[in-house]
Amino acid sequence: MKKFPVFGCHDPNQVYQPEADTYLLLEAVQKELKPTDRILEMGTGTGYIGSHLSGHGYLLVADINPHACLAAKKNGLEVVRTDLFDGICGKFDLVIFNPPYLPTQDDERIVDWLEYALDGGPEGRSTITRFVRGVRSVLDPGGRVLLLLSSLTGVDEVARLFQDQSFDTDIVARRKIFDEWLLVMKCR
Questions:
Q1: Are 99 and 131 spatial neighbours (Cβ–Cβ below 8 Å)?
Q2: 180 Cβ partners below 8 Å, 6+ apart?
Q3: Are residues 116 and 1 in contact, defined by beta-carbon separation less than 8 angstroms?
Q4: With 75 labelled, which of 56, 63, 66, 101 sits at a CA distance of 20 to 30 A?
Q5: With contact defined as beta carbons under 8 Å apart, do 172 and 31 qualify?
Q6: pTM for this prediction
Q7: CB 15 within 8 A of CB 68
Q8: How close are the terminal C-alpha atoms of the chain, in Å?
Q9: CB-side neighbour CA atoms (13 Å) of 171
């Protein structure tokens, strides 16, 4: 990814707003959640999901986008600005992530902070691949991952990425939106 300038104030137009994928992931999280779970939400955006989980054990939200971090903080959440797991300490029972999953070619890229929420690289799996390789570093033994995916991303390919890291995977939620399927993959 290209390096982007840091802005001095919060610009809500640079933050991914809740959409159908956000709502589907929240539904799956609410079904999976245990009262004592330590929860990490990667790519929190506005903090919409996190704000619906307050009071359910320890919650930490994270994003690479400084505008998203400010939005989540304004929603009363504990926020870390980080590139995936680089700035995260501790272990979590549940890690949730609505990653950038749209297949994006070089000539389609837009140079702004919102791009981090959308640009999944040429196959739609660039950030997902990095996430899969690093998630064990913050996951408690017996912990679970809930990952939002699109049928455009290659669901079987993402399952193989997790299986190569010795995770079992299941699809626990799905919804058709126009010409794509949104899915939530549970990994343990």
A1: yes
A2: 150, 151, 152
A3: yes
A4: 101
A5: yes
A6: 0.88
A7: yes
A8: 29
A9: 13
